[in-house]
Amino acid sequence: MNNIHLADRNVDAAAVMFAALSEPNRLRLLLRLAAGGASVTDLAAMSNEKLTTVSARLAVLHAARLVARRREGKSILYSLADHHVLTMVTNAIDHACEDH
User: How is 2-55 classified by DSSP, letter by letter?
Assistant: First the structure.
C-alpha cells in the first residue's frame, strides 16, 4: 500500500472496524464465528452471557461490516463477513503474542 492515498471515507471506515475490534469480548465472538455460523442463542450459550449482551456486541460488529447475518427459518445466523476479518483478527493476536 505504499504511496496510496486513501479517501478519507475509507480511512474512517477502517477506524470504525478497529474500534469494533478493540473490545476483547467482540474479538472472542469473531473467533467463535470463525468455526462457522451461529445464532445469537448459540453464541450466548457458548459464552455464558445474556442474549441481549451478545446481540448488542453482534450489532456493533455488523455495523462495522465485520459480521454478516442471514435468516434461516426463525433464526438469524451470524458469520464472519469475509476472509479478511479472520486475517485481521489472527494477525492482531499473532502480533500481540510476539516478544517486542
Answer: TT----HHHHHHHHHHHHHHTSHHHHHHHHHHTT--EEHHHHHHHHT--HHHHH
**φ and ψ at 38, to 5 degrees?**
-155, 155
Q: How many Å apart are CA 20 and CA 18, to the nearest integer?
A: 5
What does pTM read for this prediction? 0.89
Kindly report, residue by residue over 34-78, the tens digit of the pLDDT: 999 999 999 999 999 999 999 999 999 999 999 999 999 999 999
Q: What residues does 78 pair with on adjacent strands?
A: 38, 69
pLDDT tens track for 84-98: 999 999 999 999 999
List of domains in the chain: 8-97 (1.10.10.10)
- Cβ count near 60 (within 10 Å): 17
6-19 b/e (C-beta count within 10 Å ≥ 16 → b): eeeeeeeeeeebee
